[in-house]
Amino acid sequence: MLLVCTCLLGLASLLLVVKAPTYTLWKVSVLVTECSWWWSVLCAALAFLAYYRNESVWPVLMLLSLAYSYPSVFAWWYLKKIPGDLQQSYKRASATVREHGTGLFPLLKIPSLTPRSYCYDEAHGLYLDFYRNDAPSEQACVVVVHGGGWDSGDRRQLHELNSVLASQGIAVAAISYRLAPTYTFPAPLEDLRKAKAFLQQEHRSLGIFSDCFFYLGRSAGGQIVLTEAYRSPDKDLRGVIAFYAPADMAWGYQFPCWKYVMDSRQVQRQYMGATPNEAPGLYESASANLLVANAHPPALLLCGRNDVLTSFHHNTRLLAAFQKNSVPHYLVDIPYGVHGFDYFPGGPSAQISTLAIKQFILMHTQQ
């Protein structure tokens, strides 16, 4: 039995360094990488049991325990360097962030705030969930756009992150938007614009600044916020944050993800309403790396090297555009990270991304 467990744990550990070849294994990889602390403890316990029984697999189990500890140790190291990195990248004083983990252990205390819902577009029945603590002073507001391949997902997707930000004095508006294939690009961008206009109009009753907004998007939502931020410059937008976002739509269509993971070309066709050959200009207008220019808002990108749904090269292409146009930016680059690495709010990668987001917002809220 211990031999079988050792083999299974050994095979699963490969997902710490190898990209998942199928959709199911991609989901397993999220569990392996972001719950790695528990797998490390399990391997150590089995190793002591095997040693007690004088079974030869105990050294292998101890090695696996060390392998599974890698994400936590990496997070511990990365969390220490993020404040200095952000200060250097944005040339701003590092903000003070309260109540954050060490990366070595999963966070068990995650605040959960109950949001208030508002209809911001009656014509299409679109709502946003507004998160805020009870502080009397006005706050910056983050407009959060969910992921889901542009055809699924909902505004409750990042509830834990929204609660964490709101609990520390950063208001959050998580929006719904029109989904493909019923609605195609640029409908979600129009919805994001309407949501921001609603928030500005109601800023006094909501207790937020009218001129201090951030966009945050996850996966498909990351493409939406990046495109809107660099397609329609807005002096009230202080920064844009994107998790593993497609930044070059035509390039992404030319180099799709592995077919056993997802038919990414089909996903793009139903969102864009055409192929790049049929509508090259449309794809250019949806690609953030082609829209970046000077004086646009600073960006925070978060991605993982083992992402099988959104290639890491989307980030390299966008970073090249940022550097060419002198746009302040920082890339949270997680070597073992997969698409959805922030799924478990107390996991090592979520601790990294949450700290980076809080620092980024607080330092750009300050005048």
Folded structure, characterized:
It contains 14 helices and eight strands. α13 (313-324) links the parallel β7 (299-304) and β8. Helix content is 45%, strand content 15%. The protein has two domains: 2-68, no CATH class; 80-365, 3-Layer(aba) Sandwich (Rossmann fold), CATH 3.40.50.1820. It is α/β, with parallel strands linked by helices. The mean pLDDT is 93.
Give the biggest beta sheet: 8 strands, mixed
CATH class categorisation of the largest domain: Alpha Beta
What is the end-to-end distance? 61 Å
Tell me how many strands there are: 8
Domains counted in the coordinates: how many?
Answer: 2
Q: Percent of residues in beta strands?
A: 5-15%
CATH topology of the largest domain: Rossmann fold
Instruction: Look at the structure and give the mean pLDDT.
Output: 93
Share of helical residues: 40-55%
- Give the helix/strand class: alpha/beta
Low-confidence stretches: none
Overall 3D form: globular
Count of separate DSSP helical elements: 14
- The string of secondary-structure elements, in order, is HHHHHEEEHEHHEHEHHHEHEH
CATH homologous superfamily label of the largest domain: Alpha/Beta hydrolase fold, catalytic domain
| Overall CATH architecture of the largest domain | 3-Layer(aba) Sandwich
Radius of gyration: 21 Å
Strand numbers in spatial order across the main sheet: 1-2-4-3-5-6-7-8
